[in-house]
Specification:
It is a single chain. By secondary structure, the protein is an all-alpha fold. Helices cover about 60% and strands about 5% of the residues. A two-stranded antiparallel ribbon has the order 1-2.
Length: about 260
């Protein structure tokens, strides 16, 4: 059972006895929701993604540190991969002409750590790609950006799946008045993030080729970019559930000439 659903049945102070009593009370509720237990293989696959996510955060920290330290000596470069390659080349070639000896030694250590982290990320990504190629369901979802392997039998509908990820509006309704706020941000944070990142890439293409994405183009004209990204991520999650639960492959909607 989700811990947040059991918490409502905990009386006053929290201890092992109170937790056990709350679990016994919650499990008897007819509307209680239960979490499907992951297999050892599923836990291993999830661990790959968690490890990659940690290494990517460490890579970002190293890149930010290198840029900040070099900027103190007036050495800057453009954003993106080409910019960091330029900075790494400066560190490798510098022999005391532009950087003090101690600064160059420290930056060399950071540059070596960055390259090591990048190598580890690459090895994990190779395993993820191999899993994708050996999984029929993952192949059918390949055309939808930012989506990993999920179990469709856990959810009754695509709406339930989107709610589990936390990319639906949070309700704050009372007295018969419906009020929808920002997204609930419940469920799997990692899956929600990669869905929204995938939606960002689609929106960037929609700005470059608006004729191919009329729905997104019209929505971008009315709503902020990030709001549209969340709406698109919600739609992507529902499409993914439909493909996995009902079979078939993704088919892009046909454009109708106006």
């Amino acid at each position: 059972m989700p811990a947040k659903d059991v918490k409502a049945y905990v009386k006053r102070n929290k201890n092992d006895a109170a937790d056990a009593e709350a679990i016994c009370e919650a499990v008897r509720r007819p509307t209680m929701r239960f979490v499907r237990i992951k297999s050892a293989e599923q836990q291993g696959q999830l661990m790959l993604h968690r490890a990659r996510d940690l290494l990517m955060r460490q890579r970002t920290q190293l890149i930010n540190a290198l840029r900040a330290h070099l900027a103190e000596f007036g050495i800057t470069a453009a954003q993106g991969r080409e910019g960091i390659k330029e900075l790494l080349a400066i560190i490798a070639q510098d022999e005391g002409s532009r950087l003090p000896v101690d600064a160059h030694a420290s930056l060399t250590v950071l540059a070596a750590q960055l390259q090591a982290v990048q190598t580890m990320i690459g090895s994990i990504e190779k395993r993820i790609v191999a899993q994708h190629r050996s999984n029929e369901a993952s192949k059918r979802l390949e055309t939808i950006p930012g989506i990993g392997v999920i179990d469709p039998k856990t959810f009754r509908s695509g709406r339930d799946f989107a709610a589990w990820i936390g990319i639906v509006p949070r309700q704050d309704s009372t007295g018969g008045k419906q009020k929808l706020g920002p997204i609930s941000k419940q469920g799997d944070q990692y899956l929600r993030r990669i869905l929204i990142v995938g939606a960002h890439s689609v929106l960037r293409r929609a700005r470059q080729q608006p004729e191919k994405y009329p729905w997104l183009t019209q929505l971008l004209a009315r709503r902020p970019f990030k709001v549209v990204a969340v709406a698109l991520a919600n739609k992507m999650a529902r499409i993914a559930w439909a493909l996995l639960a009902r079979g078939g492959t993704y088919r892009a909607p046909q454009l109708v000439a106006l």
